[in-house]
Design a protein that fits this description.
Layout lengths: L5 E5 L1 H4 L9 H11 L3 E5 L10 H10 L3 E7 L10 H18 L3 E4 L9 H22 L3 E4 L11 H10 L6 E2 L3 H6 L4 H7 L7 E3 L1 E2 L5 E2 L8 H10 L5 E4 L4 H5 L1 H14 L3
Parallel strand pairs: 1-2, 1-10, 2-3, 3-4, 4-5, 5-6, 7-10
Antiparallel strand pairs: 8-9
């Protein structure tokens, strides 16, 4: 059964600019709406004062005819036991915001500066993911893990994905696959999506070239008609959120996210 895919925009194009970005969440909302996206996904680093005011954020979305596609929370990599309580407190705030908006919460991938003591670090990440997913279930919030492929990622290979998903299966944790990160990690993208399809609750898309450099959608090696066609035809009903981290986005995030939306339309999405 085919489904109509909803296309959203992630705010990392602005977040990655750090102090070079001096705008507001409202500026981002205006840009995303003008580019023609249906929704937007903020992070705990870009939501600013709206993080304590979900009703005001909802009203800001409505004024622009946008939906909240998801909310994302990241902090330390979730692998250090000494930071567990701090990580959990931040995640609980993110759960409350997600519950108020009625959206999925995406948690960053397990990470550490090194892979030394890998098993212990991954066990700590699994502990964290399970705890947040279980809290989310009680609040009616679907919680996903979003593996990545940089910043000391410990969750990259097919075996690592399989391990985390198996270790959290009874907690309700779902998967937020990122097509670009899966590809950069050396996995076969379509195999990964098919293998975990039953746990996929939210999808990120970005492109990369053969040297693993981020590229605008359509300028890398990923076949988006294949990926998005598979999701549509498999009955996927969640959001597909475009996330842009290329050098083009660093120079001009407005043009980058606008061009991505135009490209997806040219592919029929």
């Amino acid at each position: 059964m085919s489904a109509t895919l909803r296309i959203g925009c992630q705010t990392y194009s602005w977040e990655m600019r750090g102090k070079d970005w001096t705008g507001t969440p409202d500026d981002i909302l205006d840009i995303v709406a003008a580019a023609g996206y249906e929704g937007v996904e903020f992070t705990n680093n870009t939501i600013a004062d709206y993080g304590d005011a979900p009703q005001r954020f909802t009203e800001a979305l409505q004024r622009r005819n946008l939906a909240c596609a998801a909310f994302s929370f990241g902090s330390t990599g979730f692998t250090d036991p000494a930071l567990y309580e701090r990580d959990l407190a931040g995640a609980e705030q993110a759960l409350a915001f997600s519950a108020a908006l009625g959206v999925v919460l995406c948690l960053g991938g397990a990470a550490s500066p090194s892979r030394e003591a890998y098993d212990a670090k991954m066990a700590q990440a699994v502990r964290f993911y399970r705890a947040v997913a279980e809290r989310g279930a009680k609040m009616g919030v679907t919680v996903c893990v979003h593996p990545h492929s940089h910043y000391g990622s410990l969750l990259e290979s097919a075996e690592e994905y399989d391990h985390v998903m198996a270790a959290t299966a009874d907690s309700g944790l779902m998967l937020n696959p990122d097509a670009g990160h899966i590809t950069r990690s050396g996995q076969n993208l379509m195999d990964c999506l098919r293998r975990h399809r039953a746990r996929v609750a939210h999808v990120h898309i970005k492109d990369a070239d053969v040297q693993n450099n981020w590229q605008a959608l359509g300028k890398g090696i990923i076949s988006w008609k294949t990926v998005l066609g598979y999701l549509r035809d498999s009955g996927y009903t969640g959001w597909v959120v475009a996330e842009e981290e290329s050098d083009d986005a660093r120079r001009d995030p407005v043009d980058a996210v606008t061009s991505n939306r135009r490209y997806l339309r040219s592919c029929g999405f």
